[in-house]
């Protein structure tokens, strides 16, 4: 019982009122140089408005020495140099280690439909076991992006299945792709009783369009965002972080939030 209470307290800190603005900055492990990730200390100082920062464990150790948002340790990784294993996210740490390094929660990724899907599911299951026993929240980055997907031509079905898999494996929060519309995203969020955060993908510089997407995801049952490149590659990291926070937490409209950045 005490472990469950501890986990809920941590979730309340990471997801105030059930919503979150989380910024993953783990991309430098997969591919570097990455625009916006050259100076992690400086980047972290600009993210004061967000609810959590998701980073690889070495970066968590570094950032935990500074004042800033809570840290989540991302414990799976692959690189662009891995050939046929580039989408095979291997486990690189434990829950106990992540907490010792300063993390309040941990994260791992599963690519549904990958030829390595079974291995990633096994790793997520092990992290889920550790999180349950130690009372630590688990974020599942759940993507439908493999060659073996069976969706009958409807990508929403793959995304909904990926999110459902995350919940059934014991994830407390899931991150996944935006489906493109409120109607389709409602199919995703209605299938699980846990918070669903949307990814952002590469930035195209359209701040208003980004904020509109976030607003639509909230209206469709989403709980916020887990976006990296859209934010850390921005010309105004702090301003965009604040705008996203206003849309997710304060219900401010996308146009008004974007206007306040100017």
Q: What's the short version?
A:
By secondary structure, this protein is an alpha/beta fold. It has helices spanning 2-14, 27-30, 40-45, 57-63, 95-101, 117-134, 155-168, 182-189, 207-219, 229-232, 237-249, 254-259, and strands at residues 20-24, 52-56, 71-74, 76-77, 90-91, 105-112, 138-144, 173-176, 196-198, 224-226.
Topology at a glance:
Blueprint: H1 2-14, E1 20-24, H2 27-30, H3 40-45, E2 52-56, H4 57-63, E3 71-74, E4 76-77, E5 90-91, H5 95-101, E6 105-112, H6 117-134, E7 138-144, H7 155-168, E8 173-176, H8 182-189, E9 196-198, H9 207-219, E10 224-226, H10 229-232, H11 237-249, H12 254-259
Parallel strand pairs: 1-2, 1-10, 2-3, 3-6, 6-7, 7-8, 8-9, 9-10
Antiparallel strand pairs: 4-5
Helix pairs in contact: 7-8, 9-11
């Amino acid at each position: 019982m005490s472990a469950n209470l501890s986990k809920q307290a941590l979730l309340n800190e990471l997801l105030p009122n059930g919503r979150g603005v989380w910024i993953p900055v783990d991309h430098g492990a997969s591919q570097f140089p990455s625009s916006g990730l050259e100076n992690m200390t400086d980047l972290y100082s600009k993210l004061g408005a967000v609810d959590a920062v998701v980073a690889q464990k070495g970066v968590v150790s570094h950032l935990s020495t500074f004042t800033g948002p809570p840290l989540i340790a991302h414990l799976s990784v692959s690189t662009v140099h891995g050939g046929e294993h580039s989408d095979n996210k291997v486990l690189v740490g434990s829950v106990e280690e992540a907490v010792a390094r300063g993390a309040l929660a941990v994260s791992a990724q599963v690519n549904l439909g990958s030829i390595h899907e079974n291995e990633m599911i096994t790793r997520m299951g092990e992290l889920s076991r550790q999180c349950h026993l130690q009372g630590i929240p688990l974020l599942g980055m759940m993507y439908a992006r493999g060659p073996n997907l069976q969706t009958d031509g409807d990508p929403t079905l793959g995304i909904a299945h990926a999110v459902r898999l995350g919940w059934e494996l014991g994830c407390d929060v899931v991150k996944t792709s935006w489906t493109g519309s409120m109607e389709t995203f409602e199919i995703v969020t209605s299938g699980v009783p846990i918070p669903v955060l949307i990814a952002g993908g590469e930035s195209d510089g359209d701040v208003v369009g980004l904020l509109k997407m976030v607003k639509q995801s909230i209206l469709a049952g989403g709980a916020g965002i887990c976006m990296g490149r859209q934010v850390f590659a921005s010309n105004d990291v702090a301003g965009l972080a604040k705008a996203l926070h206003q849309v997710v937490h304060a219900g401010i409209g996308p146009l008004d939030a974007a206007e306040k950045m100017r």
